[in-house]
């Protein structure tokens, strides 16, 4: 429904949350529902149209003139190493799919490899949120568990520190470390840049600790997805260290249709 015309690959879907407590019910005024949905479509159009010129953007749309209850808040965050065109395609896919996946909920979140998009009937700006998310992990275990976990802890915390100190435009960090003669550990940490440095650091440390607590810290790869931040590690390079943000020269609207691509060697566990 939204997005630039591009030949970029179809984004890889990871997970979504429809927050049931925010769903419209039979007692909700139809006028309020109609205003909210109209405002939501306007919000998603705004977010999609800015996704080829911004890695992160927040927006607000509308207000129910009768009750003031239909205002919609939203944001997207693209991974800090992806190109502008990739960001645009990802956000467009997220906007299209999320309203299908969560048709009656007022608060939702969706994650892809290259972006995250969320919207709500409450303000999201500058608020640390760790309430909803997911784990993704590789099924293969590391044999030298203790040594690997020590290396992972120091590497992830270094990436987290780089992200937390990144400023108000980008909070993104990556670090590498040699594990064996033929294996390198690659780590990534990212926060929404509206967070303070302290809140970003807290979110990332909590995400890393979650990996240890759930015993996903000695795998061949794992991720922790949260609304305000995410962390990931792998034994192969999965990010672009030399990426630069280059907006495309022109964009044109088009309709997007996507299918979900599952990661064949990953299992997903959900904590909502």
From TrEMBL:
Signal found in the keyword field: yes
InterPro entries, sorted: GNK2, GNK2_sf
Source taxon at top rank: Eukaryota
Keywords: Repeat, Signal
Record-linked PROSITE patterns: GNK2
Pfam families reported in the protein's UniProt record: Stress-antifung
Gene3D superfamilies, per the entry: Gnk2 domain, C-X8-C-X2-C motif (3.30.430.20)
Chain ranges of the Gnk2-homologous domain: 18-124, 130-238
The protein's name in its UniProt record: Gnk2-homologous domain-containing protein
């Amino acid at each position: 429904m939204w997005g630039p015309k591009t030949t970029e690959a179809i984004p890889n879907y990871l997970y979504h949350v429809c927050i049931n407590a925010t769903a419209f019910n039979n007692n909700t005024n139809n006028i309020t529902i109609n205003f909210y949905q109209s405002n939501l479509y306007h919000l998603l159009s705004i977010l999609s149209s800015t996704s080829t010129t911004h890695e992160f953007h927040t927006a607000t749309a509308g207000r129910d003139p009768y009750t003031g209850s239909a205002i919609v808040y939203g944001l997207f965050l693209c991974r800090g190493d992806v190109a502008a065109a990739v960001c645009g395609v990802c956000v467009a896919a997220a906007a299209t799919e999320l309203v299908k996946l969560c048709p009656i909920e007022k608060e939702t979140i969706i994650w892809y490899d290259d972006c995250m998009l969320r919207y709500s009937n409450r303000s999201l700006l500058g608020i640390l949120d760790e309430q909803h998310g997911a784990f993704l992990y590789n099924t293969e275990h590391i044999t030298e568990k203790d040594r690997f976990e020590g290396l992972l802890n120091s590497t992830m915390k270094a990436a987290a520190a780089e992200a937390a100190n990144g400023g108000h435009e980008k909070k993104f960090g990556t670090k590498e470390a040699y594990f064996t003669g033929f294996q390198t550990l690659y780590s990534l940490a990212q926060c929404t840049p509206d967070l303070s440095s302290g809140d970003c650091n807290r979110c990332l440390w909590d995400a890393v600790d979650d990996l240890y607590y759930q015993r996903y810290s000695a795998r061949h790869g794992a991720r922790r997805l949260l609304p305000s931040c995410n962390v990931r590690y792998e034994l192969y390079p999965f990010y672009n260290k030399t990426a630069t943000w280059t907006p495309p020269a022109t964009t044109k609207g088009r309709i997007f249709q996507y299918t979900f691509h599952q990661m064949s060697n990953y299992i997903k566990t959900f904590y909502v």
